[in-house]
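Thread: "does anyone have the structure for this chain?"

Original post by V.I.:
We have the sequence but no experimental structure in hand. Need at least a predicted one for the grant figures.
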Amino acid sequence: MHKRLRRGLAAVAIGVSAAVALVGCASGSSSASGGSASDVSAALKKGGTITYWSWTPSAKAQVAAFEKAYPKVHVKLVNAGTGTDEYTKLQNTIKAGSGAPDVAQVEYFAVPQFALSNSLADLTSYGFGSLKGKYSASTWDSVAMNGKIYGLPQDSGPMALFYNKRIFDQYGLTVPKTWSEYVADAKKLHAANPSEYITADNGDPGFATSMIWQAGGTPFTTNGTKVSIDLQDAGSKKWTSTWNPLVQGKLLSTTPAWSDDWFKQLGNGQIASLITGAWMPGNLEASAPAGSGDWRVAPMPTYDGSKAVTANNGGSSQVVMKQSKNPALAAGFLKWLNSSSASTKIFAKSGGFPSTTADLESSSFLNDNPSYFGGQKINEVLVDASKNVKSGFTYLPYEVYANSVFADTVGQSYQNNTSLDSGLQSWQSQLVKYGKQQGFTVSSK
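Reply from O.Q.:
Generated one for you, tokens below.
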């Protein structure tokens, strides 16, 4: 079974001291896009040196394979930190006007923030529009916005229900097709054994926004520097109406995610399910070995139990920074990195859940039947999920900051077992205030 590595969302704010850092022009950008596909070919043939920032475990092997294919090109691989650690360093280079890498890994939720600050090269003129068909629709939509292409997708995190079949069988729980059935399972399980819970959730911004996404919510809209926030829209309320009984009824484990205790409880069945991204299998195999053979994967429950619909949770792209002194060469490396089969196969083998349809549809990928999941062909379920991600969801252009204040707002609802609606209202107030401080025109409902 391919080991898929954790794809959590960043939880600390990027330090931005002035509005211009977010909504003005990128300071000191030395090169603009505007080349052509032939410029990319010529740059790869000529060669040169570029710098690539990434925390992806497969990056070293991918760079080695690229340099073998293009021996005149040298790629300096730098791990500048994971998520926000890297973004803070990127933001510092943008403010300074120098020091940015040529190519950087950026999670989907953070792409709008760097795009709006004019820090990313538009790759359209290099012919990248022709690559659209290579990717799942939701991942392409995460890098192509406002008529520009800001990067190429690397992986994705379509959500599914991971559940412990042994526990479900023991307590006669249904594999839920609807959220009402999921809540019923939660009540039945905890009543039968107060030390066991249907799932763990003590307040995670990435999970909450993904759940609102699946429910049809569009709480964040952006038009240039105009931002609208409505965390009381129909989709947000649809999610809270389902999740409030779990929070207020103390039916959720509050064991911190990714802790040793969390994995121990996943292994022994105290936490009976997870609603999370397709990158989760390898984490369970590696860190909850006691659960081997017990776990299965099913489609994410829906509100009406009919048409399948899910959302993304996690996932990254690679972008070309506007500061690159050789954007055509950087674009050539990026194109190879995230669209060539030679590279995407390395990525998939390292445990990533691919965004490329060719890899998602390959027989070897679909027929993988890990013993940890009782021999189930779990990728059939996960690939179906990638095809059913609801369209239309967008992130804030300061989503990294939004995630950082989630614990102080919505997180308090979890801590006090009170309505999530009031927590979302508090979160919205913080986001409106911050956006205005950063120079955005923010409206709210």
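V.I.: this helps a lot. The chain is about 40% helix and 10% strand.
O.Q.: and The longest helix spans residues 420-437.
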